[in-house]
Amino acid sequence: MRILKLLFIFSIISVLIACSIEPEPINFGSDHCIYCKMTISDPKYGAELVTDKGRIYKFDAIECMIPYLKENPKTEFSYIMVIAYDEPKKLKKVEGLHFVKNEHFKSPMGKNLAAFANQPKEFESLDWKKLKKSFN
Amino acid sequence: MTRYFLLSFLTFTLLSGSLLAKTIIVKPNESIKKAVLQASDYDTIMVKAGVYNENLISIEKPLTIIGEEGAIVDSQEGDEIFIVQSDNVTIQNMTLKNIGVSYIKDRAAIRLNRVRDVKILHNTLINTFFGIYLQKSNNCVVDGNKIIGGAEDESTAGNAIHIWQGKRIQVSNNEVSMHRDGIYFEFVDESYIANNISRNNMRYGLHFMFSNNDLYENNRFQNNGSGVAVMFSKEIEMIENEFLDNWGGASYGLLLKEISDGSIENNNFSRNTVGIYAEGANRLSIKNNLFHNNGKAMDIKGNSLDNQIIKNDFVGNTFEVLTNSKSNLNHFEGNYWSQYSGYDLNKDGIGDVPHRPVNLFAIVTDKIPAASMLLHSFLVNSLDAAERLFPQFIPEQLIDQKPKIKPNHYDQN
């Protein structure tokens, strides 16, 4: 009986945890890009969307996330996050980041697009809104 | 007259070049970098056995560098070793070790930058980040190298042979392992990949992005994250390769995404989670392949059109074909299906009733993976039989009108 009770409590806790709407770190080498099916493997690039219902979509590149956003205009997202090139592995909210298109940055899907937490001196950058507009 | 003059001038310069070329010998405690600086065009540098702790050796003239057995250059977790910036360079029989991982720079043991006619032959690369990196280079050969990465997790791994923008590159007889991708082609056209063994790489054994008119044959891709990925590319020929043991949650023998006009012939797909996964793959000829003991032999999405799937053998796969659409615009003919349960009364080797390779339960497990626990249960088998008689969910036209009674492969031998 006691075990059943414990199990019950445990399952409630796990359901509650599962329901909280939080982004989740990318597991490089095992997570897959929802858009292009590739294994996410370069810690300098990558992106993640969390819907208002808590569903998580991971991407290997910003150029995979933006078309996905445009194809799903009705979905509400609680988090729109990307990895900054100058601070690898960590996801950051897109607002306030600087986006650079330059051959120097070989992003996984060929768009040469990287995000920066700190404004890079030698490259021209776009903010998130302008970047999104530049995708057609 | 001017023509003769030009000709004799050319022969003279060529001859004098080869006659004057000398061999420089580098011994331990001497510097390869210094020898490279001192050498004249077309000289040969012989590196004697021993360990050389050097890196950033920039080669800016035509040279041949040959290592004696046991000639080792150790970068000691530091920067790149050879940076080739001249045409007509050969690097042969060297052992290069310990390239440091960097997030800022894609360091490679050997980098080729905007050159042509460079040969990288029979080298051994150990504990590299990137192994051999060709950038904007043409007419180069990478043959007989053994490249073993030090990758423990994927985020610290580069690619063993990485080619970014190039034409007419030959990659042959190499053995690559423990990298992110074994061989990576981005914007590489008219190139040839043969007789390589690519295994234990974290992402793909071989990876094409935005590359056209390439041929890969006789390679073995084993135990990688996925075997081969061909993406956003045209006219890629894939002949007589082996795609083995690519097993895991989302592992594919061959992943096709937005590709067209190629061929996939005489390959062996064995023990993969999915043999071939195709999304947006058009006008491919998929012929004479063997699909053996895969979870799903083929997962071909509805946006794949006009593919010819002919004379393949589907043996012992859990599911033969899976798709996500009610319509089918691909042609299946003359394949052998081990799940075929028809008969051949007139003994012409072709089954008298057509075969429907898509299984209802495959569609169910694709949506609800946990349902696979019910595989081979009586309920599921009877549902499946009913679905085959009165198809509701599986595409009606996805049908092999002429299923072979015996496997094509055994017919040939």
Automatic annotation (TrEMBL), chain A:
PROSITE patterns: PROKAR_LIPOPROTEIN
Pfam family, one: NosL
Cited PANTHER family: HTH-TYPE TRANSCRIPTIONAL REPRESSOR YCNK
Record protein name field: Nitrous oxide reductase accessory protein NosL
Species of the source: Marivirga salinarum
From TrEMBL, chain B:
Keywords recorded for this protein, A-Z: Repeat, Ubl conjugation pathway
Pfam families: NosD
Gene3D superfamilies reported in the protein's UniProt record: Single-stranded right-handed beta-helix, Pectin lyase-like
Transmembrane residue ranges: none
Pathway: Protein modification; protein ubiquitination
Domain Carbohydrate-binding/sugar hydrolysis: 47-186, 215-353
InterPro entries named in the record: Carb-bd_sugar_hydrolysis-dom, NosD_copper_fam, NosD_dom, Para_beta_helix_rpt-2, PbH1, Pectin_lyas_fold, Pectin_lyase_fold/virulence, SCF-Subunits/Alg-Epimerases
Top-level division of the source organism's lineage: Bacteria
UniProt cross-references to NCBIfam families, sorted A to Z: NosD_copper_fam, para_beta_helix
This protein's name: Nitrous oxide reductase family maturation protein NosD
Gene it is expressed from: nosD
